[in-house]
Design goal:
six-stranded parallel β-sheet; three-stranded antiparallel β-sheet; globular; 9 helices; Rossmann fold; 9 strands
């Protein structure tokens, strides 16, 4: 049995994993919400480490969650058994999510500088929910929340001596229209991973293929 901490991506919440959790019944699983009220990556890291407990735990990061699990591994590599990036941002040192995404696809984002946050425009839904039913896409879109700007713009500070020592695996999604398959492969080359599982899915396999995603997570968590 593995202990898995599942971290959602930008504009989403812990609800992303609701359909995956029943398929991971043999494991200890925690899926925390990353609060939009946080003002720094350090606050998110502290929350995740609280969820990890005594550890070590397997950290799973979907999309922007990839940057968060990387920051956690840099802060406390001894408490992380391995990292699993699920169509996630596996960033270079000093790179931000926004910088990594700018050459791939430009998402329709509505900025709110006063609140230091941003939201997604409605026409972003087809990009996020490729392969999902219209009902599932509507369900997810109704739960979008604001994203703190630091979650997209903060440069990631990772080192080979700390983050680099934690084993890394990747679940890539070939039909992804948010982080293209080519971009996922490029990030895998920046920080080589040990194992890769390929899903014929869009950016949100937690909705379109929850059982298949859970099988991949269980296989990599061992």
């Amino acid at each position: 049995m593995a202990k898995l901490i599942l971290l959602h991506g930008a504009w989403h919440g812990a609800w992303c994993w609701d359909r995956v959790l029943p398929h991971l019944a043999g494991h200890e699983v925690v899926a925390p919400d990353l609060p939009v009220t946080a003002r720094s990556m350090a606050e998110w890291v502290a929350l995740v480490l609280e969820a990890v407990g005594d550890g070590p735990a397997v950290l799973v990061g979907h999309s922007r969650g990839g940057a968060v699990i990387s920051a956690v591994a840099e802060a406390a590599p001894e408490r992380v058994a391995r990292l699993i990036f699920c169509a996630g941002f596996l960033l270079k040192r000093g790179q931000s999510v926004l910088a990594a995404a700018q050459d791939d696809i430009l998402l329709p984002i509505v900025m709110d500088p006063e609140a230091r946050a941003c939201t997604l425009a409605a026409d972003a839904a087809p990009l996020f929910y490729t392969g999902c039913s219209a009902e599932d896409a509507a369900f997810a879109q109704a739960r979008w929340q604001a994203e703190p700007l630091f979650g997209l713009t903060a440069p990631l500070r990772v080192t080979a001596e700390r983050f680099g020592t934690v084993p890394r695996d990747y679940i890539e999604c070939t039909q992804d229209q948010v982080i293209s398959h080519a971009a996922q492969r490029k990030m895998q080359a920046q920080w080589p991973v040990r194992r890769v599982i390929t899903l014929e899915a869009g950016h949100s396999p937690f909705l379109s293929a929850p059982g298949t995603l859970a099988d991949a997570l269980a296989a990599l968590a061992c």
